[in-house]
Amino acid sequence: MKHQLELRHLKYFIAVAEDLHFRKAAERLFISQPGLSRQIKQMENDLGIKLFERHNRKVELTKAGQFLKTELTQHLKDLDRIFNQAKLLNDGIGGDLKFGYVGSAMQEIIPNLLLKFRTENPNAHFSLKELDNQKQIDSLLSHDIDIGFVRLERVPRDLQIKPILKEHFCLVLPENHPINATNFKNLKQFKNDAFILFDSKYSASYFEKVMQIFDDNGFTPIIAHNTIHASSIYKLVENEFGISIVPKSLQNQNIKGVKFIELTKIPQKTVLSVIWNKKNRNPILQKFLTHIN
Hints:
Residues 5-62 form the HTH lysR-type domain. The chain is α/β, with parallel strands linked by helices and 293 residues long.
């Protein structure tokens, strides 16, 4: 290998590998098609590898090209993060931390952690995005986020998980429902009610735990709706489309039209955990993790 490759060659290759079309890739890169073809050919010659199978009107990646696309895409993301971190430090910003979270984590956990962390790191920059559990897993593996807050029992091997909150479940009822905290006995009182639950796609392990609550009470729930957003649950309950079960951290007395009954006498509890990629070398992530007990 002649070692004449430059960063631009890698970006040119990724563009063609994504579009599988030299003209479209050239337009996206703002260079001429013949010029792009020459650069890719030079890259192939320098590497001694055939990256594309070229047919009349069709371009396909070779096995070597597919491998290189997967690896380079990840490493170029790493390089972008390194350059971004350097720019932040140059601008006097202590670093950038990207969060993913399920809605219940935003009630108290994340705001409290951020307030505590910012006291010691006033120049740190945060970005936050609500994502379901699986999207957080995918985003952590692809390094699109640095840290996640999930309701999961297990995560892939490359990720680290740490429980930070174990809490009761709560029933969510319409405000005018005849059962309240004083006359509530057990869940069997609701065996004829329709339920609005978090979708199993939100978290299979969380959904299974909720199903165990019903199993212990000797009935299968009538599930009228599934959703991944607490706000949708509350709106549906308020309008008497059913009742629900949610983590206690989603209990909010300021929500109009619904009421909560904490389920303190059942064995099932739900756990909120923080997760991160073991290979993530973002220095501000390591600082942040020291604030999580």
